[in-house]
From TrEMBL:
<dbReference type="InterPro" id="IPR038765">
    <property type="entry name" value="Papain-like_cys_pep_sf"/>
</dbReference>
<dbReference type="GO" id="GO:0005874">
    <property type="term" value="C:microtubule"/>
</dbReference>
<dbReference type="GO" id="GO:0016579">
    <property type="term" value="P:protein deubiquitination"/>
</dbReference>
<dbReference type="InterPro" id="IPR018200">
    <property type="entry name" value="USP_CS"/>
</dbReference>
<protein>
    <submittedName>
        <fullName>Ubiquitin carboxyl-terminal hydrolase CYLD</fullName>
    </submittedName>
</protein>
<dbReference type="InterPro" id="IPR001394">
    <property type="entry name" value="Peptidase_C19_UCH"/>
</dbReference>
<keyword id="KW-0378">Hydrolase</keyword>
<dbReference type="GO" id="GO:0005819">
    <property type="term" value="C:spindle"/>
</dbReference>
<keyword id="KW-0963">Cytoplasm</keyword>
<keyword id="KW-0493">Microtubule</keyword>
<feature type="domain" description="Peptidase C19 ubiquitin carboxyl-terminal hydrolase">
    <location>
        <begin position="21"/>
        <end position="200"/>
    </location>
</feature>
<dbReference type="GO" id="GO:0004843">
    <property type="term" value="F:cysteine-type deubiquitinase activity"/>
</dbReference>
<dbReference type="Pfam" id="PF00443">
    <property type="entry name" value="UCH"/>
</dbReference>
Length: 223
């Protein structure tokens, strides 16, 4: 079955309140948050649930679709044992025993399920100093900046790309962004405001842009 993602008032009605979302268990938070973000209110990656990719593991695909995504969209709640079922399969396929009990980086989870298990083509093409690299998500790395107290996602992405000298080679079909990491003792930002739209004009390689002085098409770019 295909259950459409939640939208507008329906999303609020289904997802708000106690016993909603994906139940956490045994350091599953990194996976719970990633799955909720990717599937609860958007269909951009629904091909992961149905499409027979070249390397696709149908068992993992059915667990993801039938035990996690569909219940989340229908009732707004996913039991911890459903996520554990997925984690057990990832442990078996990924040859890493710690997927069922240890905290992982979301990027590690996405690379495993998208690349090794489902065989999806990389979603992003980045260029840095003439070298291209393919990836499935972009993790924001940046130094602490005093003028950013409560930043939005737009500011963080732009400054991260600038500090790392990165450009998008092409417009991505899906742009998965991981916010700056923090531990229990330190948080870079107490809050980050979600940008409901993301302007990637200045992040695109060789994209025509307006000169900030004369208004014509720019021929030079400086940081």
């Amino acid at each position: 079955d295909s259950v459409p993602p939640l939208r507008n008032e329906a999303a609020v009605h289904v997802l708000r309140g106690r016993m909603k979302g994906i139940q956490g268990h045994c350091n599953s938070c990194y996976m719970d948050v990633a799955l909720f973000s990717l599937f609860s209110c958007t269909s951009v990656l629904d091909s992961m649930l149905f499409k027979p990719f070249p390397l696709c593991d149908r068992n993992v695909q059915s667990i993801l679709r039938d035990e996690i995504v569909n219940p989340l969209r229908k009732t707004g709640f996913v039991r911890a044992r459903s996520v554990m079922h997925l984690r057990e399969q990832l442990t078996e396929k990924g040859q890493c025993s710690s997927f069922t009990n240890a905290e992982k980086d979301p990027e590690e989870f996405l690379n495993l399920i998208m690349h090794q298990i489902l065989g999806i083509e990389p979603l992003l093409k980045l260029q840095s100093e003439g070298q291209e690299q393919d990836c499935y998500c972009y993790q924001i790395f940046m130094d602490k900046q005093e003028d950013l107290v409560v930043p939005d996602v737009q500011q963080l992405v732009e400054r991260s790309f600038l500090s790392s000298n990165l450009k998008l080679v092409e417009i991505p079909s899906c742009f998965i962004i991981q916010m700056p990491r923090f531990g229990k003792e330190y948080k870079m930002f107490s809050k980050i405001i979600p940008s409901l739209e993301l302007d990637i004009t200045d992040l695109l390689l060789d994209s025509p842009r307006e000169c900030c002085v004369c208004g014509d098409v720019a021929t030079l770019e400086c940081s």
